[in-house]
Amino acid sequence: MGKCASCHAGDMKSNSTGPALGGVQGRWEDAGKLHEWIRNNQKLIASGYPKAVEVSKISASAMTTFPDLTDPQIDAILAYIDAKASGKLDTPKEAAGGGAGCRWRRIEPEQPDVWSGFIDPCPGCPGADLCKL
Ligand code: HEC
Predict the structure, then answer these.
(1) How far is CA 112 from CA 93, 106, 116, 124, in A?
(2) Ligand 1: distance of its center to the CA of 101 in Å?
């Protein structure tokens, strides 16, 4: 999440260079367009998509583009944003099998195979491919 945290506040509730991201999925009607925004906001704004044009006016700064993010990576980021904003990560369960120092947290206890939240992930933890985000 370092890629986003330089401009978006980690608590998901305060505005920084970029707006607070908590609840963002509810503010975008079309999930596909939200993915497009995160991957390349400039292209979506240039296409004239109304929500993108509206959001582009929030700040005089432009958001970086992240053309290499895959859909599963963006879904993981959005799940993290929701979990963080809703306080779910305040009482995290330790990741099973992650090893000492693993700070990955399972945020969907009812779905043991779904690792959709992460805090400072370390090598060897489930889903470590997302460490670079
Ligand atoms: C260089 C600063 C910067 C970085 C880095 C950045 N953003 Fe942004 N982001 C912004 C700004 C500024 C806006 C508001 C749009 C505007 O004014 O052009 C924004 C808007 C958004 C929005 C729309 C918010 C809304 O209320 O609809 C989302 C979603 C978003 N960013 C997600 C991300 C994600 C996810 C990352 C990391 C992969 C990221 N941003 C990285 C600056 C940044």
Answers:
(1) 11, 8, 10, 18
(2) 30
